[in-house]
Design goal:
five-stranded parallel beta sheet; 2 domains; Rossmann fold; alpha/beta; 295 residues
């Protein structure tokens, strides 16, 4: 693999070995293995894939994993009732409610109903607030994974200009906060661009580190990237391609083929941010089980 590639799969595998050792030590000390649960509403293919990957990752490190499947038509009250059950179940260390949810359910209300001490997705307003203040908390899994990927790839962000494309509450906004703060992941100067930003290329061409989480396939072209930049591609899109045996190809928010020759480092899709997101969820679950954040 080219030394330009930031191999999230390999870094995640190394972190999983570290987690597995900690889990084994807990079990040796007669402490139960960390238990991660997921609530899955409906049959969204991307959500199904993520939950299956999460379950396998838990098995890899010796954690317990449980999935609660609810029908697409489940009422908001029924979903909140399931969340209340998991909030109160002492056997569950942390859980996630897989997003997106059906249109008839208020996502904000659902997230706010999760016990912050079990919110290993790091989406509860209390945990977002703690992150912004630099207090111990569960970091949102994808931003956590991106920050860890940069750190373990020895990318020094101190004083660097980082441009983030996309302002979602899941990726763009939290990563912009995390990388700008005075902490082990941060000290960057961060610009956050979004759909209303004028002449986005003017900003991206200034970026020492470019994080693309804009949700549009192959959006970032070579003429938008500063030579020698670090490029983190958060997007993943399934594009129909009849020339391939499987009938589709996976691509990110970055036009990898055109951008690759001019960058210093870049994440692939798949195998970049995705594995880091899952391993970050395991790290949060381990912290929850060890009561490292909420005493």
């Amino acid at each position: 693999m080219s030394n330009k590639i930031m191999d999230g799969k390999a870094i995640a595998a190394a972190i999983k070995i570290e987690i597995a050792k900690e889990v084994a030590a807990m079990i040796d000390a007669d402490v139960k293995a960390p238990h991660l649960a997921a609530i899955l509403v409906g049959t969204n293919p991307a959500s199904e894939t993520y939950v299956v990957s999460k379950k396998k990752a838990c098995q890899d490190v010796g954690m317990t994993s449980t999935t609660y499947r609810l029908e697409e038509t489940v009422s908001e009250a029924e979903l909140i009732s399931t969340i209340k059950f998991l909030n109160e179940d002492p056997d569950i260390d942390g859980f996630i409610v897989q997003l997106p949810l059906p249109d008839h359910i208020n996502t904000d209300k659902i997230i706010e109903s999760i016990d912050p001490s079990k919110d290993v997705d790091g989406f509860h307003p209390q945990n977002i607030g703690r992150m912004q203040l630099g207090l111990p908390t569960y970091l949102p899994a994808t931003p956590f994974g991106i920050a860890e990927l940069l750190k373990r790839s020895n990318i020094d962000l101190d004083g660097k200009h980082c441009v983030v494309l996309g302002r979602s509450n899941i990726v763009g906004t939290p990563i912009s906060i995390l990388l700008s703060r005075k902490n082990k992941y941060g000290n960057a100067t961060v610009t956050l661009c979004h759909s209303r930003s004028k002449d986005i290329g003017n900003f991206t061409r200034q970026a020492d580190v470019l994080i693309a989480a804009i949700g549009q396939p192959d959006y970032v072209k070579a003429d938008m990237v500063k030579p020698g930049a670090i490029v983190i591609d958060v997007g993943i899109h399934r594009i129909e391609d009849n020339t391939l045996e499987k009938g589709y190809r996976l691509t990110g928010d970055v036009d990898f083929k055109s951008v690759f020759p001019i960058v210093d480092k870049i994440t692939p899709v798949p195998g970049g941010v995705g594995p880091m997101t899952i391993v970050s969820l395991l790290q949060n679950t381990l912290s929850a089980a060890k009561r490292l954040i909420y005493q």
